[in-house]
Amino acid sequence: xxxxxxxxxxAYRASVLHFTADPAFDDNAFQWHDDGLLIIDGDRVRAAxxxxxxxTSLPAGTTVHDYRGKLIVxxxxxxxxxxxxxxxxxxxxxxxxxxxxxYTFPTERKFADIDHAQDVASFFLDELLRCGTTTAxxxxxxxxxxxxxxxxxxxxRNLRMAAGKILMDRNCPAFLQDTAEGGxxxxxxxxxxxxxxxxxxxxxxxxxxxxxxxxxxxxxxxLAQRYPDTFLxxxxxxxxxxxxxxxxxxxxxxxYLDVYDHFGMMRPRAVYAHxxxxxxxDRHRMAETQSAASICATSNLFLGSGLFDFARADAARMPLSxxxxxxxxxxxxxxxxxxxxxxxxxxxxxxLPALRMFYLATLGGARSMxxxxxxxxFITGAEADFVVLDPNATPLLARRxxxxxxxxELLFAFAMLGDDRAVAATYAAGKCVHVRIP
Length: 438
Ligand SMILES: [Zn+2]
Hints:
The chain has 438 residues and is α/β, with parallel strands linked by helices. 37% of the residues lie in helices and 23% in strands. The relative contact order is 0.15.
């Protein structure tokens, strides 16, 4: 017998999809309810299932929001993005290092000013929500003000976000340079102020091995060990010129990744962007330490960095997630990111089903962040972050999806043809935070 649920609940009727495992390794990886119901109790998921089954459990008078014809999935998780770069996305440059010099560093300089930082953070978060992204791992700038501004805006919207101050004490302009001790001390102060305050989470953020001295990496690694439930995020093995530079700076290291390993930075909740030029030893270290890779396809294509190797990553069972890497990435949309990820995989001989890509953009991201059960699925008790996708958002999407004969075909059409326009609404912690105005 079904017991009636206490009011007030909110219920959403639509097709409902979420994952319980990685479809690459498990035949029963997802739950799909064609005529489904998602029941939200305050800021948490109460239940997800078939409408016909669940409707009888709703107390009389419960509002059922009618999204029939649309698809509800967990909010997207973008595991690597730079909020200050929202203003310089789509900047022309011949490669990563000149792109940093010409555009990135001058742009980041302005974030010493908290008003400017707050203005950009506000735009940035709204843009994420327009694209259906409810959680991201975010790089701020070297300035503590940029972190305070970011978390203040995120807290205002009650979003689950991880972010941190960049650590950078060499090989950068003097106006963006911190010191080994000063940078790590500021990071620790920011951990005290923001980590686990509501839904905010701190990420220790050495930019990459090139821009930190050994002393700074040492202290950052110690900080990461001292606060094991904080995140750690950095870049690794993005392009060949960068890999060669790291080799010259750290001649004793076995590999680029080994530099971070040496300083104690490989652990659960460590997330490494790119991971293109790894070897199999590195890949096994990632899996062994539960360090996760952020696959940044639009950025890797835009900067000509290289192609992520899915076959070798999966063979090693590396934890994987998808990311936009804005502003090296060219879109805030995780749907467009899936589109380019699919092509990157194909160039390496891997055919990536849409189901896998939706997994990577939801539960895969949550697992990479060690947040399974909290975000990324509709398991009972999960935080109620979800997206309503509209298959009729554009004339082309409508025409194509009216002819899809399976869930895989429908998801594939969203991944290839969808972008922010396909997001009809976004909910964070049970509250509507974006509605698309057609
Ligand atoms: Zn990046």
